[in-house]
Design the sequence.
């Protein structure tokens, strides 16, 4: 059942209020990390992990996110005339990267509801969920690591990262039994516990491999914190019915939904670019001095 994960759901309906005023007219998913929109890193990870179809959950005003992955005839014609072959190739590859469908989440009812919106498009097969706020720099990609764990264990998998105990109130935290190196059988998930109430320091981050059985659970999940349908609440029920694993992935994760995390991601990815690394290092030294 978990040998092949072909479909990936990317929720992209949020308003991006933490980045106002920049996100007043520009979707937060299109804010660039160096010169590439945040969501493109997510889609590239999905494709590199074997995903064949991306199901984008959008909202009113998010049409530009779909347009980014569409064919741009006018732009391609201009690049042809200007003989900018390298840029033309880049634009073409972007529009041919993956099959993509977009589904509207008409009301902001939470992450659980956003995932539920993809039910018809996913069908009766396991699928991935990738949140756009979490950028993971890893080789192999974070999702590919998780797909391998799900194949070996035969169950759903949630990405985990150890966080300082003083930061557990910022994350969903799991209680689990270690069953393999970096792998835990999840017994409980607690949403944003205080440090003295957290069952561990293993935090849930925005990557999931889930069975289709999550959909009827989400359908019957009542609104929770903030009046929204919480994916965490549904995962709690799923973990009681069938094996659900947490995997402490290998890689560097940046919270691009946080201003400081977004800056970290920009600096980290710029330092990986040979044409920028030297000058950026010198600049950072000057700033620190």
Sequence:
């Amino acid at each position: 059942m978990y040998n092949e994960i072909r479909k990936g759901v990317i929720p992209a309906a949020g308003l991006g209020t933490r980045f106002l005023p920049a996100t007043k007219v520009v979707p937060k998913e299109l804010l660039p990390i160096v010169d590439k929109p945040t969501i493109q890193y997510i889609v590239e990870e999905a494709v590199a992990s074997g995903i064949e179809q991306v199901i984008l959950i959008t909202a009113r005003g998010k049409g530009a996110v779909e347009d980014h992955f569409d064919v741009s005839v006018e732009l391609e014609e201009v690049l042809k005339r200007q003989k900018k072959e390298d840029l033309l190739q880049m634009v073409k590859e972007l529009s041919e990267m993956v099959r993509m469908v977009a589904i509207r989440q008409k009301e902001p009812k939470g992450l659980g509801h956003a995932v539920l919106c993809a039910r018809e498009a996913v069908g009766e097969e396991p699928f991935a969920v990738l949140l756009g706020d979490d950028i993971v720099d890893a080789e192999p990609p974070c999702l590919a690591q998780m797909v391998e764990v799900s194949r070996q264990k035969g169950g759903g998998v949630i990405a985990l990262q150890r966080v300082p105990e003083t930061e557990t109130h910022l994350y969903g935290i799991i209680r689990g039994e270690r069953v393999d190196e970096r792998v835990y059988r999840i017994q409980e998930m607690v949403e944003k516990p205080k440090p003295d109430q957290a069952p561990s320091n293993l935090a849930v981050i925005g990557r999931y491999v889930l069975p289709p059985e999550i959909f009827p659970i989400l359908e019957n999940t009542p609104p929770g914190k903030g009046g929204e349908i919480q994916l965490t609440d549904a995962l709690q029920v799923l973990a009681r019915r069938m094996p659900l694993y947490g995997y402490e992935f290998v890689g560097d994760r940046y919270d691009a939904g946080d201003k400081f995390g977004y800056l970290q991601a920009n600096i980290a990815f710029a330092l990986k670019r040979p044409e920028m690394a030297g000058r950026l290092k010198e600049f950072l030294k000057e700033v620190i001095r």
In short: The radius of gyration is 20 Å. The first strand starts at residue 7 and ends at 11. The CA atoms of residues 77 and 83 lie 10 Å apart. The mean pLDDT is 89.
